[in-house]
Amino acid sequence: MEALFALLVGALFTVSIYLFLSKHIIRILMGAAILGNAVNLLIFTAGRVTREVPPIIPPEFDVPQSVVANPLPQALILTAIVISFSFFAFLLVLGYRAYQDLETDDSDEMRVAEPVDDVPPPLGY
Amino acid sequence: MSAAAPSLTFLALCLPFLAALVAPALTRRMGHNAVWILALAPALAFIHFLGFLPAVADGGAITGGYAWVPSFRVSFSWLIDGLSLTFALLITGIGTLIVLYSGGYLKDDAHLGRFLSFMFMFMGAMLGLVVSDGFLMLFVFWELTSITSFLLIGFDHTREASRRAAIQALVVTGTGGLALLAGLIVIWNITGVTQLSELIGLGDVLRESPFYLMALVLVLGGAFTKSAQFPFHFWLPNAMEAPTPVSAYLHSATMVKAGIYLLMRLNPVLGDTAAWTTILPVFGGVTLLVGTFLAIRQTDLKQMLAYTTVSSLGLLVMLTGFGSDHAIAAAVLYLVAHSMFKGCLFMVAGLIDHGTGSRDITRLGGLRAAMPITFAAAMAAAFSMGGLPPFFGFLGKEEIYEALWHADTWSLAFVAVAVIGNGLMFVIGFAVAIKPFFGPVRETPLHAHEGPALMWIGPAVLALGGLVAALVSPVTHRFVSSPMASAVHGAPELVTISLIPHIGAPLLLSLITIVFAVAVYLGLDRARRFADRSLRAIGWGPDRGFDQFMSGLVRGSRRITGVMQPGRLDIYMGVTFVFIALALLVPMAVYDEWPARPVWPEDAAFHELTIMAIAFIGLLAVIYARDRLTAIVSLGIQGFAVALIFMLFGAPDLSFTQFMVETLSVVILALVMTRLRLTAADHRPTGQKLIDFSIALACGTGFMLYLLAVTQQPFRPYLSEFFEAYSKVIAHGGNIVNVIIVDFRGTDTLGEIAVVMITGLAILSLIRVRASRPDQPIVDNDPDSEPTPTGAWRKGRKLGEGA
Fold first, then answer.
1. Chain B residues touching residue A110 (CB < 8 angstroms)
2. What is the pLDDT of residues B704-722, one digit of tens each?
3. Does ipTM exceed 0.90?
4. What parts of the sequence cross the membrane (chain A) (predicted)?
5. Which member of A2, A10, A71 has the closest CB to residue B720?
6. What is the CATH number of domain A2-51+68-109?
7. CATH architecture of B603-681
């Protein structure tokens, strides 16, 4: 089963990076959203996949009574989902505000920090 | 030695730094008279070091110190033998006189306190340098002298020439300092010792090491830059931009001799090899000739003296390189003599400048009557510089000829170099001492007058010192010359030369020198024109080379920055992902760690395959979507597919969270994006799309192979088993994932909450804060302009708007 997961993870990464390489902020944002899924699924698969048995201990026992899914990657991913969502929201608002001020979503035209006609540094002492 | 001696020596080393600390406050309260009190600091240190004379004269060395970083055997420790002691006495003795002189010279300067503070910092650094035993301590003080020299040269920082000279000195000597550090580390690695005192016995180990030449070249890099050897000599004349006390103290008497000190200190361990006895005399000899030739050209008193300092340093390097008994004795005598007469002559130049307002030798004359004390000091120093009896310089010069006079071509060549160099220095010395004082009285910017006592004490004492040291030469030799020569030689050595001339080659060479010098002196104007013409014909010099180097550095950096940071996000991203792909794929290829060919999972159920297929379709739809809304919806499809996968494979918590997050993302994205007027499709040309897709595919394949390789390794469930076993028992929770998050790794979750909160605040501020119109361009702070009074900027802006 892991081979299939690996294939899906590879596809998620490919699409996400392809979107990242675009010049348009909106596509980069979608790439960021997919990248989160790609990484989460990577962690999930690295912890091995088990079908349909959530890591929950029945109330009357002290330890799980059968083989359960690996809880550790799940805990990591749960944290990761929340953080990647908050960053996604931040990037979205940042892109939106940049568009409002600069009137473009083309990253090539966003040259406030590194202008094309930057003045050369002074040569004197 | 009493028990209190180590701490007293430590105090003597700290005294200049303490004086640096109190100098500004004291000067603010007492004006320039504060120097009378401040001069006590170096004077007390001088007296303390005088107390070591008898012990050192008997061949002893005073050591002491404290552990600094014991695990690396780095210590703050001092070694005071004949060499260190002579230097320490010169630094503190001349330092005392210079402090007094500064009080007179910068009497009305508003920044006298700052100046004295820098001066004392330098004094402390230089003193620390010459008594250092540990390598690291030596290096730290070495660089500290470079930095304080930078501060002093750039003291008048409103002038561009000062700033340039300061930067130049710092770049040249600082770079040399780094070479020295590397050299010391190489020596440390060869011998395994970190103390100069332990190194002295290990000369043979060092000389036989294959890394000897590397260590030598690196150490010479430090010494030659500091002591202004050709072709690094150019910074020293430029350093004359500093106030005259600095020129007299740092750039003739002490700091520039740090390189000579280092060579003398290391002579017993690095010296006496073919490389040492070739490189040093050749560089020294060339420096001697170049320095005197350039000096002849100058008409500014300080510039003339600066170039002869370059040549004197060349002479010292040359003598140290020969390394014979007489050569070392000559170097020692000449070094002491030079510190006194050159320091004196610089102070004379300052006095003339102070008294008349001019330093141009062609515009001065007849000052003898107006400035009698200055005249007397100048004449005495010139006698010493010219090597005439009964002054100390005479002993130095006789010993030089004694050392060089051998009947082979190599020696004779250097005899010729020494005769020409000495002769031209004789010319410059007397030009400085005679031209301004004799002849008809010339009009000068100021009415010529003698300087205040503060200013003539220094030159007078140094001039007298040059006389007395020679008259009582047996005493001088016993307490100064012989111990120092022994330390340089690494074996006991006795200096015996006296004022009574003995008939022989040295005396003959002296006479030749004097005849040559008098001939040049009489035709000085013609010699100057000749030097000027030939230098103009050459046109290029290391000084201009430095400017070219610096502007090349700035231009080159700009070009590299332009390539590395073109300011285009797609290029940054492209480069980043190419490197990620390489990092993933190259190690697998190089170490042949490809994962085994995966087998088709027989147990894959139909509904599982369907959901995976939906995820793939969602991904494709994101790329191929014709408009934004479709793309956003497709994004939601792959997100929900992933959520379903979590659900099917035993992670309901993840699944619920993913559903919520994915829904929110899609809704927000759709809300925001429909507000923007954006063109729909991907605008990249096909070629670019192909390149981008290849990069993406390489990365994706890399991650896939990596994940396959990981999952084909045996699984180690230690951590998971721990959480399963103790979740209920210790943390009393049935849902293991939740227990990990809120209990076992509760602090991590706190961090996560903090991240969410901070991004929330950032989003809020992004929405709330509206950008104002583009601001006024920032005007660079121009150091040459008058400081703007508060509020003037606003007024100017209003005026500008009104007009």
1. 569
2. 999 999 999 898 888 888 9
3. yes
4. 6-21, 28-46, 75-94
5. A71
6. 1.10.287
7. Orthogonal Bundle (1.10)
